[in-house]
Design a protein that fits this description.
five-stranded mixed sheet; elongated; seven-stranded mixed sheet
Amino acid sequence: MGININKYIPLSTHVSYISTSTNIGIIAFPCGKTVKIYLIDSGNDDAQAQDILKLLSKHYESYTIEAVLNTHSHADHCGGNIYLREKTGCKIWSSKGEAALMAHPEIETGLIWGGTPVHEIRSDYLMAKACDADRIFKGEEEFTITEGGTPIRISVVNLSGHYLDQTGFIVTDTDGKKSFFMGDAISGRNVIRRYWIQYLLDEPRTKESLLKIAETQADFYIPGHGQSVKEIEGLAELNLIAIIETEDMIVDELSCPKTTEEILKSVADRSSITLHLANYVLIGSTLKSYLSGLYEAGKITYFIEGNRLLWKKI
């Protein structure tokens, strides 16, 4: 999906975002005749990074991009890093865990496949260009960026679960307004209703991050995908309901023992999902994370019979 000037949405005095397939945060510091910009995430690939630069050129007569703050290392959030760094000289900032994965993007496709994947999975959609981070966040730190005499406070929030070391960013503007960029810890209403089963790596930690988001005070909440909101409780609840309903569906399917493959088919059929290779891999990987979470919670168990691993409800 292309980006155009109509997708530029102001939030506060110095903070905006580009509303597109992956939302891109913008922190803009006027410095004389130019504007120094810090982005939150960089889109999926070179083409989307080019669109970001085109939009900025339409909105600002003169600008520089100082850094990209990555929420996590999935290709749709960091795939534009290399292009932006080569074109603008910007720095790349990330958490420690996500920086390691950005440096070795083949880990992502290997992780969802469970080994070296077939070549169709090793595409730009799932595997960004390798990128080294210039700054590693020190856990849940807080720091201030000051450009042109304008101080903007950034709070780094651990939102792991969807991915290994995902972070969110609370940006406090000079007018006191707080914008919470949440990455894929939460999805917008339009997205969650279209994709009820969302990819996640760690199901219990995903729920913990949703509860943390629900308790965090901000003026604007910007998910990685979907529309921003000013009130978060309802959206967090909708995301939690989607997870809990998926848990219940899996447990219900295990009234009689099933293999992981059989559970995947049943869940896809009940959710009216037609599986193709990409979502077969993504939903299949997510299902294994659910099974691990349900097992650790004491709701299901497994056994091996006839050289098959089977799951059943306790």
